[in-house]
Amino acid sequence: MQATEIQALRAMIAQHKRYDILFGIIGLLATLVGVITLLALFIDLIMDGYGRLTPEFFTNFPSRRAAEAGILSAWVGTALVMLVTVLAAVPMGVAAAVYLEEYAPRNWVTDLIEINVTNLAGVPSIVYGLLALGLFVYILDFGQSILSAGLTLALLILPVIIVATRESLRSIPIAIREAAYALGATRWQMVSEHLIPYSMGGILTGVIIGMARAIGETAPIITIGALTFIAFLPPLPGAIDPATDQAAGLFDWLFSPFTVLPIQMFNWVSRPQAAFLENAAATGIVIIVATLAMNGLAIWLRYRIRKHIKW
C-alpha cells in the first residue's frame, strides 16, 4: 500500500471518529434536555408540596378542607388496580410472546399479528379507554369498577410486555436451544427450563416499565368512570357492610368504585384554592417517586439476574 493510500485511510478514519464524537455529544445533549426538564419539574413540585407529605396525608381521605385532605383512597385504589393489571397482563403477555417467538409458524398471519402488536404500543391511551368502556363496562357488565380499570390498563401495557419478552428471548444464543434439543428436551422443556429463566431479566424489565406507564395513566381511567372524590375504601373480604349487615365476599372489592392518584391530583389541580394546589403537588411527588422507584427496580433486577446467569 502506497503512502498516499495510507494517508487517505488515516484521514477517513479520523473523520469517522470525529463524526462519532459529534454524534455522542448530540445524543448527550438530547438526553440532558429530558433529564434537566424532569429534574426542574420535580424540584418545582417538591418546593410546592413537600410540606404536605406527612403521615396524615397518606392516611386521610379526600376532604373539602385542604388541610385535612389525604390520598388514602387514591393510593389504595392505585395499588389494587395495579394488582389486577399485573395479574391480567403478565401471564397473557409472556405467553403471547413465547408463542410468537418459539411456536408460531412464519407466515402472513404471524406477520400480521406482529405488525398489529407493534402498532398497538403506539395507540393513544384514550382509545383503550373507549374500548374498555364498551367491552368491560357495558358488554361484560363489570361496571365502573377496579376490575374494569385493571383490565383496561392490562390491555394498554400488553404490547410493551410482548415486545420486551420477545426481544429478551431473541437475545439468548441459539446454542442454548440446540443443546437442550440435543439432550432430548421437548420444546416446552427447552422454553420453560432454559429460555424463560435466562430471559427473566428482560421480561421483568418490560413488565415494570409497563407498570410505570400504567400508574400515571389518566385518560382511560376517566373514560370508564373513575370517581374524582371518594371517601371510602373497597370492602375487605369478610368485612361486615353496615348497610346490608352482610359479610363482603372474597372478590367483592373487584367491583367496588375507585379512584387513583392521577385522578385525585387532577381533581385538586382544578380547584382554585392554593392549598389544594399544594395537595396536588404532593400527589405529583408521590407519583414521580413511585415511577422512578419502579424503573430503578427494573434496572436492579436486570443487573442481579444477568449477574447470576451462567451461559
Average pLDDT confidence is: 84
- What's the count of strands? 2
Please state the second-level CATH architecture of the largest domain.
Orthogonal Bundle
Task: Please identify which CATH superfamily of the largest domain we are dealing with.
Answer: MetI-like
In DSSP terms (H or I, runs of 4 or more residues), the helix count works out at 12
The secondary-structure class comes to: mainly alpha
**Which regions contain 5 or more consecutive residues with pLDDT less than 50?**
none
Q: What is the third-level CATH name, the topology of the largest domain? A: MetI-like fold
Question: In sequence order, what are the helices and strands, one letter per element?
Answer: HHHHHHHHHHEEHH
General shape:
globular
What share of residues is helical?
A: over 70%
Note the gap between the termini.
43 Å
The profile of the biggest β sheet is: 2 strands, antiparallel
CATH class of the largest domain: Mainly Alpha
Q: Largest beta sheet: what is the strand line-up?
A: 1-2
Describe the structure.
This protein is an all-alpha fold. The protein folds into two domains: 52 residues; 254 residues, Orthogonal Bundle (MetI-like fold), CATH 1.10.3720.10. It is 71% helix and 1% strand. It has a two-stranded antiparallel sheet with strand order 1-2. A hairpin with a 4-residue loop joins strand 1 and strand 2. Helix 3 packs across helix 11, helix 5 packs across helix 6 and helix 6 runs antiparallel to helix 9. The longest helix is centred in the N-terminal third of the chain and has 47 residues. The protein is globular and about 90 Å long.
